[in-house]
Amino acid sequence: MNQNYAVPAVALVVLATVLVGAFGLRISRTTSDFYVASRTVGPRLNATAISGEYLSGASFLGIAGLVLVQGPDMLWYPVGYTAGYLVLLLFVAAPLRRSGAYTLPDFAEARLASQQVRRLAGAFVLGVGWLYLLPQLQGAGLTLAVLTGAPAPLGGIIVAVVVVATVAAGGMRSVTFVQAFQYWLKLTALSVPALFLVLAWQGDGAPRDAFAEPVTFRDHHVVRIDHSLHLRLSRPLDVTATGTIDGRRYTGEPVDLDAGVHRIERGTRLTFAPGAPVPTADHGSNGGMSSSLASGRRERPLYATYGLILATFLGTMGLPHVVVRFYTSPHGGAARRTTVAVLALIGGFYLLPPVYGALGRLYAPELTLAGDADAAVLLLPQRMIGGLGADLLGALVAGGAFAAFLSTASGLTMAVAGVLTQDVLPARGVRHFRLGTLLAMAVPLAASLLVGGLPVADAVGLAFAVSASSFCPLLVLGIWWRRLTPPGAAAGMLAGGGSAFVAVAATMAGFTGTGTLHALLAWPALWSVPLGFLTMVLVSLATPRRVPAQTAAILARFHLPEELRTEVKA
Amino acid sequence: MPQDSSERRVVVSGPPRRTRLRSRGRYPHASGYYRPRTEIAEQTTLGHTYVRSLMRSQLRAALSVFAVLVLLVGPLPLLFATIRNSGLQWAVLGFCLYPPMVLLARWYVRRAERNEKDFVRLVEDR
Known about the structure:
Chain B: Keywords: Membrane, Transmembrane, Transmembrane helix. Chain A: Its main location: membrane. Chain A: One of its GO terms (cellular component) is plasma membrane. Chain A: GO terms for molecular function: acetate transmembrane transporter activity; symporter activity. Chain A: This is Cation acetate symporter. The structure holds two protein chains of two kinds. Chain A is built from 24 helices and seven strands. In chain A, helix 9 packs across helix 17 (about 385-425), helix 10 (about 295-300) packs across helix 11 and helix 17 (about 385-425) crosses helix 18 (about 430-450). In chain A, strands 1-6-3-4 form a four-stranded antiparallel beta sheet, with no helix packed on it. Chain A has helices at about 5-25, 30-35, 45-55, 55-70, 75-90, 95-100, 105-110, 115-150, 155-205, 295-300, 300-315, 320-325, 330-350, 350-365, 365-370, 375-385, 385-425, 430-450, 455-480, 485-510, 515-520, 525-540, 550-560, 560-570, and strands spanning about 220-225, 230-235, 235-245, 250-255, 260-265, 270, 280. The radius of gyration of chain A is 24 Å and the shape is globular. In chain A, about 70% of the residues lie in helices and about 5% in strands. Chain A has two domains: about 5-205 and about 305-570, Sodium/glucose cotransporter (Up-down Bundle); about 215-275. Chain B is mainly α. In chain B, about 70% of the residues lie in helices and about 0% in strands. Chain B has helices at about 15-25, 35-40, 45-75, 75-85, 85-95, 100-125. Chain B starts with 16 loop residues before the first helix and ends with a helix. At the A-B interface, helix 5, helix 11, helix 13, helix 23 and helix 24 of A face helix 2, helix 3, helix 4, helix 5 and helix 6 of B.
């Protein structure tokens, strides 16, 4: 790709982010401004900001990449991300806003009057937040590497620095403006090129094989393998090879590969005939932590799909950067209306990534081989249009991708830093918040430099699973069930969230199991969410004397409309 | 006490409700004059019963919309696994699920707000 345009586009997005953030800094004066923008953000601005924050790199690049590699099953991700907001609206939105707490630990403490539960919730916020930040940084690194050939960690470092600067400087008020701005930026950056790409597809005679399974090459295609990899073939394949396959050298002769796994050394050139199915690189055997979730999916497809649905539907409500946004609404009713607007905004956005995924299957199928299918969105304009127009569109997409990493990372950093400042660092106050920001970003940055990458959307899916099995039970039972006790809440979070976390860690560490166990660990939500709920209910029922004394009053505050409550207090 | 007290006419009256309501503007009941309001504020058993009834109606609204969502989405993976028509899967997952979700959300918000309005009316005895 021509970096003459992409680099200025990324620079422009970064600059605009800093400038809009600085604008927020001028009007961000009090501590309340800092954390919750003084709770004066109207539904429209707030909904745009929430959407801007929520549409992460996983949405912008990851979904198209996953769809490209694994087919339409992966469209469950955007559906789940959207439905998660619907579930959040149904059970949590208004009462959460009325609870009057800033963060999830605040909610836990207000509801259960227990420091221990508060600390536990804080620990899970850190865990989920860092799990979610990691792929953002890695995705930014990938984007910059694909665009400019820069070393992989550079993009992550740039994102980290910009985010720490804006968040530490302006807090929530400036983040709100930044994110509202970035929603529109992302929508433009994905919709305008999509329009041109679809026109180009039309001009190409509108081939429809994008929807066929499996993906096939449409014409003679030469693929150069840049990194040695294992190729998994579900059926025999005829290719022309120059290089080393399974330890044998070939020089431009036809090779018949049987179904199964083949090792291909770097530098090998494979020429595929038209109509040949596109094989998939098997990342599990590539070493590192990228033991892809795909293998678990291959073995138990239905289980994996339901696990994904459950994790995304129930996990959204517990994401720290999502929750913190609800406190910026002026009242419970506004929080509800905001959520409906968010649903419409993100639903509209999610119509676009599948377009890229489908076109990617037609025009860039070999990306599944190279293993960086996440780059499909970035490369498509070049592949399909070419010339100056493609460079400009590519630059637009690159800018949008960076906006995606920046906005989600700022929201997460904000939430994680809030917890660090309030519960970990000794004193409170804005100065310590800035220190917390630094710390919140340093950990995932270090981790992203140390470990390799899962596909972006998969890694985000793991964060959802942990959130769904720890915070979802806490929030839903905390809001709707009178008999919840502090020991019950703690036990439930530990059993559900803790086991999901262990499963996720085992998967990311490249746990080499196969079959049922691997599927269970790679898609934990289906067992860990019920486990969390069940433990929370049973332990609460076993400790009836520990029901906090103020429960009735607190639940009344959660559910009574504000117009009644203000008077009750007066 | 004077003996003729029984013969004197005593006018017993409360503040006329409607006028008082109007004159207080936005917060007509700041004094907690009416009963349910006071019951809730003072957290009596009766007050809890009022809050509980609100919670129950809100939970019912949430659960019924959630049930629609589950019925809409739950069978789809099974359906796709049996039909194996990827074109259908693209259409449903890529597009068709979003409009119903937004409509469900709007329906729920309207119902939840109506529940709250009804509750306020009940409590304020209007």
